[in-house]
Amino acid sequence: xxxxxxxxxxxxxxxxxxxxxxxxxxxxxxxxxxxxxxxxxxxxxxxxxxxxxxxxxxxxxxxxxxxxxxxxxxxxxxxxxxxxxxxxxxxxxxxxxxxxxxxxxxxxxxxxxxxxxxxxxxxxxxxxxxxxxxxxxxxxxxxxxxxxxxxxxxxxxxxxxxxxxxxxxxxxxxxxxxxxxxxxxxxxxxxxxxxxxxxxxxxxxxxxxxxxxxxxxxxxxxxxxxxxxxxxxxxxxxxxxxxxxxxxxxx
Length: 251
Known about the structure:
With 251 residues, the chain is α/β, with parallel strands linked by helices. It has one domain (29-245): Rossmann fold. It has helices at 84-87, 96-110, 127-138, 143-149, 160-169, 181-189, 209-218, 239-245; strands at 32-42, 45-54, 60-66, 75-81, 113-118, 174-177, 194-198. It has a seven-stranded mixed β-sheet with strand order 1-2-3-5-4-6-7, sandwiched between helices. Strand 6 (174-177), helix 6 (181-189) and strand 7 (194-198) form a beta-alpha-beta unit. It is globular. The two termini are 30 Å apart.
């Protein structure tokens, strides 16, 4: 496959293709600080926004908290990574914006939960490399091969900040809103008690269908093997039980 000359990775220490660095060198809880807390009204209701950052680092991460989660078990939690293209510019190449809003809506419905918004664009490779990968996808590569052609890992996200944020908030155990079993595994490895997984199923559009299929087939995401005409099937009744059992459509 031809690689356009301008499409080159800009990384100082390329990781091994296919590897995830989300658990590398986990940082200590004392390294994070809460910079600001305030109620924020949204179209899904009012949440308490807590701004976290690593001590000595300007990068800010956000916890959107609904209700009293301190000391609670089975708290609905979404660990969501930044997606500028989808959330701000409404790109149709992925379902990130829809997953974000579906999670906030579900947390508001439950009147208790947390959405953690982590600043790790493009599965952790950054915005410029994400757009370089998009350019390769326009030439026929899927999301996995595009990253590898740039010498980048399939998924470079890390979740140690998420684990520490949950600890700071006093959450005892969570029901994680995700289709990604690797996210469950990595949070558990970081000491988070993930007692259940809640699927976040967003129907594909013509632009996102191939991307979602690549995540299902090549990245183990628990997504339907065929498109659905339902407007939104996230958090449908019985979804928690189906996720725990493993339904035929979520393979």
